[in-house]
Design a protein that fits this description.
Helix content is 28%, strand content 25%. It has 275 residues and is an alpha+beta fold. It starts with 6 loop residues before the first strand and ends with a strand.
């Protein structure tokens, strides 16, 4: 009888805040060091503002990823870099607030998303689109949907007190374009839609504790803060279908000396066992 060796595929998904503040050499170095320390096989990023496809390819080569894809070169791009080729890839901006990338890497179907920050109804449209794309993939193949969902999970509901909804309400009173509350309540419908489609929150497969993906020690303008001021929220996720869920061996929101200061979000780090 032959035994099939299992390997790990290491995946990092990260909203890097305005393209790692491309003017900041120190921050780009901090980011590259994080990648070199982790040695992930696949890196998905959101907010690659200011980067071009060529510049991303150069950055990825610095941490030994010869393959790189960026959704677009304007606005808020998403990106994917990898140690191995990405096949059948698509870069989609249509019907998306920002964009998404689809690619098959290492036999895994990957969607990198960044949903609308301003409207839960737009996010519902976006997640419906992603689910429809994923439904075209054979059910016995692993699928991962990762990125900044700008949405909260019902499994974290008990960690969100009244203050969060109150703060969101104030923000909506000030800004007509912000409509994140659903009938005055925190909206869980976007991620519930993924759940209803059979996807699982990789973090909750292995963890009972709540782990926020923001705030960090950096604010949204890139300034270093003394404390993690702000309401802890988890809006960055890696969701997986049943086939992929069975292979998840590690899933964490990565908090360390580097990630405290790279972005205003913490990255999601997942390991999958593959044959």
């Amino acid at each position: 009888m032959t035994t099939i060796a299992q390997q790990k595929v290491k995946i990092l998904s990260y909203n890097v805040l305005y393209g790692l503040q491309k003017d900041s050499v120190e921050n780009i170095e901090r980011y590259k060091q994080l990648i070199k320390d982790l040695q992930p096989d696949i890196v998905a990023t959101q907010e690659m503002n200011g980067w071009t496809q060529k510049a991303l390819e150069e950055l990825a080569k610095d941490y030994d990823h010869p393959y790189a894809l960026q959704s677009k070169e304007t606005g808020f791009p998403v990106a994917l870099t990898s140690k191995t080729p990405m096949v059948n890839f698509k870069k989609v901006t249509e019907n998306m607030w920002h964009a998404y990338i689809y690619a098959k890497v290492n036999g895994i179907h990957i969607f990198v998303i960044h949903f609308s920050p301003f409207s839960y109804q737009k996010r519902l449209e976006e997640v419906t689109n992603i689910i429809a794309q994923a439904a075209e993939i054979p059910v016995d193949e692993p699928i991962l949907i990762m990125g900044d969902f700008n949405s909260m999970a019902e499994s974290d509901r008990e960690h969100y007190g009244d203050n969060l909804a109150k703060g969101m309400k104030k923000s909506e009173e000030k800004h007509a374009h912000i409509r994140n509350l659903n009938n005055g309540q925190i909206d869980y419908s976007v991620l519930n839609k993924l759940k209803d489609a059979g996807f699982k929150d990789s973090y909750r497969l292995l963890n009972k504790d709540f782990a926020s993906s923001m705030p960090t020690f950096k604010d949204g303008n890139g300034n270093i803060k003394q404390t993690q001021s702000g309401t802890p929220k988890r809006i960055d996720f890696l969701w997986c279908n049943d086939v992929a869920a069975k292979r998840v061996t590690t899933s964490t929101v990565l908090k360390n000396a580097q990630t405290h200061y790279i972005s205003d979000h913490y990255p999601v780090y997942v390991e999958l066992a593959v044959e």
